[in-house]
Write a structure and sequence with these properties.
Elements (H helix, E strand, L loop, with lengths): L1 H14 L8 E3 L1 H18 L3 E6 L6 E3 L1 H17 L6 E8 L4 E6 L30 E5 L1
Parallel strand pairs: 2-4
Antiparallel strand pairs: 1-3, 4-5, 5-6
Helix pairs in contact: 2-3
Length: 141
């Protein structure tokens, strides 16, 4: 319940242009590990195997850990929700010289290219149609 109230407060702060992040050094591997704990039951109910590919020597990064956990938990949860029974969701962490890259690959239907403009718009939804699976980075820090 607290998380739901916090989510509503975050939306209000974003809409008011007053959303602030509390950036602190953190291990993105530890953040991902915490997020996977929240999603294990949902994955088990669908017999979805959560596979993690994590590059060696990922740097410590400056993030708002609770907000990053919320974002990653939501992405993993959506991947599980929209993929088939007895499949896999592959979560990858890698880095370049400038970024840490987080990506998720699932066997879900994907988003129709004609509806991509709806992404990140308030109260918009997309339809789901079967598209070829592909690995796409979804979050860069």
């Amino acid at each position: 319940m607290k998380r739901l109230v916090d989510d509503f407060l975050d939306v209000s702060a974003i809409e008011a242009g007053k959303f602030e992040l509390d950036l602190k050094p953190a291990s993105i591997e530890a953040v991902l590990s915490n997020c996977l704990q929240f999603n294990k039951l949902q994955a088990a109910k669908k017999a979805v195997d959560l596979k993690v590919n994590c590059a060696d020597n990922l740097p410590t990064i400056l993030i708002d850990t609770p907000k990053m956990e919320q974002a990653i938990t939501n992405l993993v949860s959506n991947a599980i929700e929209h993929t088939g029974l007895n499949t896999s969701v592959i979560i990858s962490l890698s880095s370049t010289h400038q970024f840490v890259v987080f990506s998720i690959q699932d066997s879900g239907p994907g988003i129709v290219p004609d509806e991509m403009d709806k992404l990140f718009k308030p109260f918009e939804k997309t339809s789901f149609k079967k598209l070829p699976a592909k690995k796409v980075p979804v979050l860069v820090c």
